[in-house]
């Protein structure tokens, strides 16, 4: 960006504010963005003739979304499984019959790396149309040394030229590949002995995650992956208590993980363990909606217990084929009982906190990136209300317009 910018005629200005430790809904606000894309000043009557103007047309402005849980590196979609689920098969039955994560891993390993990169690029572009300006992105559909490294390298390479900020997570422990189905030890040795050291040496990942679940990675297997990951300096995230509470949440607390994600089956002891630690609960309402479940994570209860609940899409080809944070906000309100303002905080500041990046994103405050959405309506309640499509009007990343709705 070459010019300083003044954003004026903002209708409603809605953001988390670190001083108030709460969301604020303000009017008559203007915002100056420095040449480097950082918010320089927020206040009233900031007008100065030398500034380039962004006219917000009296519409709502919010921070860009931080999607703190996504799986965008996959080779093929799995709409056949959607049909099977609608016809009565469960997610577990489909996985046991060779579908699910294993099917995705087969496709990715056999696939063409250039084509994979083009597909991932297409998905990265699409996040921005929904107002998302920062994502966490996981590997986990490779499940071999070569394909896991390829997945992370693709994310790294694409991020260099992309407007989206991408934080990478190594999820080699997403499932046991077919070859190691009866030899879990050998696959864990491969993760710990080969994948993790290579990833750390190449700086390919910020975090390490494990799918800790009955029938996937046991508690002990999860620990065996995450302890060495932590010693290598990676932040820890865990897919925990999605279907059965086998202790993943308590392990997250013990390892001082950044987040524990899913949590549909979390117990009162689990909530207590999160309270005692700094682990952020990341809940994924679109996943349960997409799986046709009536059971959702107890986000309301966790919020009332004082936990900084975050929400995310869980974008993946099996259990959540959506990149829409506005849709996630709608489901968080309707299915989990969060208010629109709480859900917005969960999708911005709390999500950034789960990644430990609130110093630069997650709220519109002086000194942070000017990552924001101008909405095609006036009031924040419109975000969950205008369902499918939710009218994102313009999206700015670091003060630069990166998307605009065109009829
Ligand atoms: O977060 N729960 C584990 N992993 C993904 C699902 C992956 C898939 O079905 O491909 C999730 O929901
Ligand atoms: Fe996930």
Give structural notes.
The protein has 407 residues and is of the alpha/beta class. The protein folds into two domains: 102 residues, Roll (Urease, subunit C, domain 1); 289 residues, TIM Barrel. It contains 15 helices and 18 strands. It has an eight-stranded parallel beta sheet. A four-stranded mixed beta sheet has the order 5-4-1-6, with no helix packed on it. A four-stranded antiparallel beta sheet has the order 7-16-17-18, with no helix packed on it. α4 packs across α5 and α8 packs parallel to α9. The longest helix is centred in the middle third of the chain and has 19 residues. The mean pLDDT is 96. The protein binds N-(iminomethyl)-L-glutamic acid (NIG) and fe (iii) ion (FE). N-(iminomethyl)-L-glutamic acid binds next to α3.
Brief summary:
The chain is of the alpha/beta class. The protein contains 15 helices and 18 strands.
Notable traits:
36% helix, binds N-(iminomethyl)-L-glutamic acid, 4-stranded mixed sheet, 8-stranded parallel sheet, alpha/beta, 407 residues, Urease, subunit C, domain 1, globular, TIM Barrel, binds fe (iii) ion, 2 domains
């Amino acid at each position: 960006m070459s010019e300083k910018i003044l954003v004026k005629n903002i209708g409603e200005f809605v953001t988390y504010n670190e001083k108030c430790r709460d969301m604020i809904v303000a009017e008559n606000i203007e915002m100056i963005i420095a040449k480097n894309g950082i918010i320089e000043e927020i206040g009233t009557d900031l007008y100065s003739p030398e500034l380039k103007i962004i006219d917000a047309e009296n519409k709502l402005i919010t921070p860009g979304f931080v999607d703190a849980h996504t799986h965008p590196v996959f080779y093929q979609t799995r709409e056949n499984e959607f049909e099977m689920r609608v016809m009565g098969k469960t997610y577990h039955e489909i996985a046991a019959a060779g579908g699910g994560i294993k099917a995705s891993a087969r496709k990715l390993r056999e696939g063409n790396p250039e084509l994979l990169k083009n597909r991932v690029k297409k998905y990265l572009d699409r996040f921005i149309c929904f107002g998302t300006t920062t994502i966490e992105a996981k590997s986990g559909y490779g499940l071999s040394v070569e394909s896991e490294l390829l997945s992370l390298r693709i994310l790294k390479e694409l991020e260099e030229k992309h407007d989206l900020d991408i934080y990478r997570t190594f999820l080699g422990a997403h499932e046991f590949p077919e070859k190691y189905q009866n030899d879990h030890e050998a696959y864990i040795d491969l993760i710990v002995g080969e994948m993790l050291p290579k990833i750390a040496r190449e700086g390919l990942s910020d975090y390490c995650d494990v799918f800790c679940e009955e029938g996937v990675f046991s508690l002990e297997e999860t620990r065996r992956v995450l302890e060495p990951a932590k010693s290598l300096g990676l932040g820890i995230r865990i897919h925990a208590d999605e279907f059965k509470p086998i202790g993943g949440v308590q392990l997250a607390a013990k390892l001082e993980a950044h987040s524990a994600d899913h949590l549909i089956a979390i117990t009162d002891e689990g909530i207590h363990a999160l309270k005692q630690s700094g682990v952020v609960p990341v809940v994924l309402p679109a996943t349960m909606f997409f799986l046709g479940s009536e059971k959702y994570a107890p986000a309301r209860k966790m919020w009332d217990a004082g936990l900084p609940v975050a929400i995310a899409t869980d974008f993946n080809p099996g259990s959540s084929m959506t990149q829409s944070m506005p849709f996630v906000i709608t489901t968080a309100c309707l299915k989990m009982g969060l208010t629109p303002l709480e859900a917005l905080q969960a999708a911005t500041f709390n999500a950034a906190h789960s990644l430990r990046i609130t110093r630069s994103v997650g709220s519109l405050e002086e000194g942070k990136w000017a990552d924001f959405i101008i909405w095609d309506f006036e009031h924040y309640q419109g975000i969950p209300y205008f369902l499918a499509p939710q009218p994102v009007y313009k999206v700015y990343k670091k003060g630069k317009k990166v998307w605009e709705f065109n009829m």
